[in-house]
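ok here's DNA-binding transcriptional repressor MarR:
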Amino acid sequence: MKKKIAIETIAAELETFRSHDVDATILEKIRETDLGDVNTRMGITINDLHVLSAVPQDGSAKIAEIVDSVPLTQGAVSKVLSKLTTKGLVSKFHQPNNKKDTFVQLTTAGEKVNQLHHEYHQVEAVKLEKLAAGYSKGELETIASFLAAINKIRQ
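and the structure:
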């Protein structure tokens, strides 16, 4: 295959990958659950899922800690958390001894959504491992390096 054709093929495959909403599957699973009312299930976005994932399952986190762990701005995280609070997926509160920082914790519904999201990514990881088994270590390193370079130029 000529180099130009290989580059065009890679570009086409990346476009297919981008246009295929990888997380659409998990969003559909959430919408199909009996989780609360329809308002809770509908309108959840990928960013919502990523912010939910940043909240510890067994405790709480400061909003600043969540901001540090997701690729979103402080303002975007605040908007997402307000939306998730309205949907009943998280609750916000202040510690009695710390009125400055706002803390966030998952509700029961938020834990369920987080679990569905986590299970989805576990299934995807198994699929990737099976796919990767057909490539040598060197080939995988080349692919990883190439994809990292693509992501770097897209920033």
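+1. DSSP finds eight helices and three strands in the chain.
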